[in-house]
Amino acid sequence: MIARKGATLSSSNADIDSEQAYLTTLYQRLDQLRDQADSRLRAILLEAGGTPQGRTQREATRGHYAEQLAQFNSVENGLCFGRLDFSAGRPRYIGRLGLFAEDRDQDPLLVDWRAPAARPFYLATAVSPEGVTRRRHLRTRGRVLTGIDDEVLDIEAGDGSGREDVTGEAALLSALTAKRTGRMRDIVETIQAEQDEVIRSGLPGVLVVQGGPGTGKTAVALHRAAYLLYTYREQLTRTGVLILGPNTTFLRYISQVLPSLAETGVLLATLGDMFPGVRAHAAEPPAVAAVKGGLGILDALENAVADRQTVPDDFVEVDHDGYPLRIEREVLLAARTAARRSERPHNVARQVFVTEAIHQLSLQIAERIGADPLGGENLLSEADLAETRRELREDIDVQQALFDFWPVLTPRQVLRDLLSDAGRLESAGLPATLLRERGHGWTPADVPLLDELAELLGVDDTLKVREQQRQRKAAIEYAEGVLEIVEGSRSLDFEDEGAEKDEILSALDVVDAGAFVERHEVIDTRTAAERAAADRSWVFGHVIVDEAQELSPMAWRLLMRRCPSRSMTAVGDVAQTSELAGTTTWEQVFEPYVAQRWRIVELSVNYRTPSEVMAVAADVLAAVDPALRPPRSVRSAGVTPWARRVPPAALVEELVAVVRKEASLIEEGRLGVLVPESLESSLGAELVAAVPGAAVGEQPDLLNHVVLMTVRQAKGLEFDSVLVVAPDEIITESPRGLSDLYVAVTRATRSLGVLHTTDLPKVLSSLA
Ligand SMILES: Nc1ncnc2c1ncn2[C@@H]1O[C@H](COP(=O)(O)OP(=O)(O)OP(=O)(O)O)[C@@H](O)[C@H]1O
Question: Is 448 a pocket residue for ligand 1 (Cβ < 6 Å)?
């Protein structure tokens, strides 16, 4: 465990002065680059007009400079944070981005933390120094150097007080004990060796990062995204990286960790955002979500689609060409069988259904009007039959009747109808517990079902393709007209100039109508992330899943579809699973998709929770699963966790008093009040009334000083001080209640308190 030391190796004033001078040079260079990007951007914004292609090009260049500017602005604080000295050669400065001198040699002034040359900053130790003699952490405020921490990586020369398993001890401790702000911070200055290994793993394959609470899984996942985008920039900017988090509050919490992520191809999303056009954030009982999350629902979805392919009991009659036309059950059965046998998705198989039905009906008509009264062969020729089929196909009444029996369907329509109709649920083989009001909002667990239905239904794009062809033909005709006009005016201009005329190029010599149209087609300038968000069939270059233990098998199916290359990073903790359809073993998740071709790495050090709090959590974890071991806390906070029993009638009063006291103790830090779902709205209302500015509700603002939420909402978050209310109810509220309590007690960076109205649960007896 690390404890704050009085001082790190002392640095002389001369050191401070020379480092400040260097820092100033770096900022000057940054300013210069920023000015350049700014003036280029302004120049582009002033340009106007031009061809659509020129405008597209300009838009791309504008995006490039805007991105550069945003990046330069985002590194203003903490531009340079480290320096490496080697036994030979010049020192190397490490920072949030790479900078090169303006001179012709373009000497590196600052090495980007993601570059291979920065790696010894995170890995070098006294035992394995990698040529490094000294690692220096530079502490800054704005552009001013406020301190220097040195580590001498030489066993002989060291002062013996450092820890071999922790790099940058002083800087790490200062980061860990800093007050929380409601937004996660980056850890580029203090990435630890085991984390660095994960962050810099290669792009291909599935990497699972298992780690207890506070081991930096989220931090590592985000830094990995930044590293991958830096290292495989071209590939990933094109295809995009998906980072999937558990809920919107969490996404907001992590959104500013690495500003560089926002500018490139990263899509931050929750499962509820993964079906374009749907924002699925409504709540539903965990048991219902569990049914939807299990693979057992696959058959039910197939049934639900099959149930929409109906046939009449007997026949239906339509008017065709002035005569009644009977569409017999047998005709539709034959058409349905043919369509189902085609094994195409429902909407695509519709073509087969219609063709077969029309064929059968044309034979029926031929039978009626072409029958030879003398009993010979049918009198209609093949051409007559083709004409009959054409007429049937174009007959609105026939079309409508066939549509009724094999309709074009959308995933939303099928799922909404299924979940709001007891008969359909039963017919599909689903329990009545899934029944809900028709107007009910979409829930996250609905999304994989919508996605699956989209696969089962498919899109019949023949009409779309036909429309695109029609539009292109019209555009070419228009272009031909334009070129003819150009051509016509040319002949007028050069009417009298004889031979010269032949030497002058005409528009038609350099471009034909097709090429003319192509040039004027607008190129899509959206980023990969923007396009991915709007496209269900988008295939990501890499997928990162946080709190991966919570995803259901159906959700994994969706994700695997979005990532056929299986280039994935999943971070999570199987001891913290609260979703009933979530997983408690990684094998279960990955074996079906990448049998034996996935790697698991464990993170073992808890950077968040102090040892006093972790001792309490360890008992809870032992009750979740005696085989699991909690991660080792890297520090102690010197604050003893406590529990207090209060009569139920006094709970609100006591809660308000404790919140007021704790809130003042943590000064500008953050206090999290974690409550059972059943008490959330009542306690939330009481707290807001008594402590104005406390954040409550579905998406509480974490920037507030005090936040009251359920454990489920608190997944992945942290607070300086945590107050857990009614732990017994947290345990009994869900079959995974013990895991929920484990999550609750591991959110604190400093202190933990528990208010209980019944006997303290046995797993918390160390607090008695
Ligand atoms: N190397 C590091 N340097 C500084 N801070 C770190 C480091 N690693 C982790 N932290 C900090 O520790 C805290 C916990 O990290 P993080 O939230 O990523 O953990 P986690 O494993 O995702 O936790 P949980 O499973 O509980 O959600 C964060 O405040 C993070 O910034």
Answer: no
| Highest mean pLDDT, choosing among 42-56, 102-116, 612-626 | 612-626
Q: Tell me if 216 is assigned to a ligand binding site.
A: yes
214 is in an annotated binding site: yes
The alpha carbon torsion through 99, 233, 211, 703 (nearest 10 deg) reads 70
> Ligand 1 within 6 A of 167 CB?
no
CA 66 to ligand 1 center in whole angstroms: 31
Q: Which residue has tokens 């990969």?
A: 528
Alpha-carbon span 41 to 62, nearest angstrom: 6
630 carries a ligand binding annotation? no
Q: What percent of the chain has pLDDT over 90?
A: 64
Q: What percent of the chain has pLDDT over 70?
A: 90
Give the number of other CB atoms < 10 A from CB of residue 206. Answer: 21
Neighbours of 575 (CB within 10 A): 24
Is the CB of residue 564 less than 8 Å from the CB of residue 539? yes
Q: What is the spatial distance between Cα 537 and Cα 551, in angstroms, rounded to a whole number?
A: 20
**What confidence tier does 1 reach under pLDDT thresholds 50, 70, 90?**
low
**φ/ψ of residue 612, rounded to 5:** -60, -40
**Per-residue confidence at 3, pLDDT binned at 50, 70, 90?**
very low
End-to-end C-alpha distance for the chain, whole angstroms: 26
743 CA to centre of ligand 1 in angstroms: 14
Q: Give the ligand 1 atom nearest the CA of 715.
A: 27
CA-CA distance, 46 to 173, in Å (whole number)? 49
Q: Give the atom of ligand 1 at the shortest distance from the alpha carbon of 221.
A: 18
Q: Would the CB of 186 count as within 6 Å of ligand 1? A: no
Q: Which atom of ligand 1 is nearest to the CA of 743?
A: 26
* Secondary structure (DSSP) of 368-403: HHS--TTS-S-S--HHHHHHHHHHHHH-HHHHHHHH
Contact 546, 245 (CB under 8 A): yes
| Mean pLDDT along residues 108-134 | 91
Dihedral sign computed on CA atoms, order 93, 96, 102, 103: positive
Q: Where are the alpha helices (DSSP H) in 294-444?
A: 297-306, 329-341, 346-369, 382-394, 396-405, 411-419, 422-428
CA atoms within 13 Å, Cβ hemisphere of 76: 7
pLDDT tens-digit profile of 43-97? 888 887 777 777 777 887 888 888 888 889 889 989 999 999 998 889 999 999 9
Report whether residue 610 contacts ligand 1, using a CB cutoff of 6 Å.
no
Q: Is the CB of 716 under 6 A from ligand 1?
A: yes
Question: Which of ligand 1's atoms lies nearest the C-alpha of 573?
Answer: 25
* Burial bucket for residue 117 (CB in 10 Å: 0-12, 13-18, 19+): middle
The pLDDT tens digits for 518-556 are 655 555 667 777 888 888 888 999 999 999 999 999 999
Distance 47 CA to ligand 1 centre (A): 46
Question: What region does 370 belong to: left with phi over 0, alpha with psi -120 to 50, or beta?
Answer: alpha
- Compute CA distances 425 → 113, 241, 292, 580, whole Å: 54, 37, 12, 21
Identity (one letter) of the amino acid at 424? R
Nearest CA to ligand 1 atom 1: 191
- Position 420 pLDDT exceeds 80: yes
Tell me, in angstroms, the distance from the centre of ligand 1 to residue 184's CA.
9
Residue 191 CB–ligand 1 contact under 6 Å: yes
For the chain, give the mean pLDDT: 88
**Tell me, what's the pLDDT at 322?**
86
Structure tokens at 670: 């953050």
- Is 216 near ligand 1, meaning CB less than 6 Å away? yes
Residue 231 annotated as binding site: no
In short, whether 214's Cβ falls inside 6 Å of ligand 1 is yes
Give the Cα separation of 480 and 517 in Å (integer).
10
Please say whether the beta carbons of 449 and 292 come within 8 A. Answer: yes
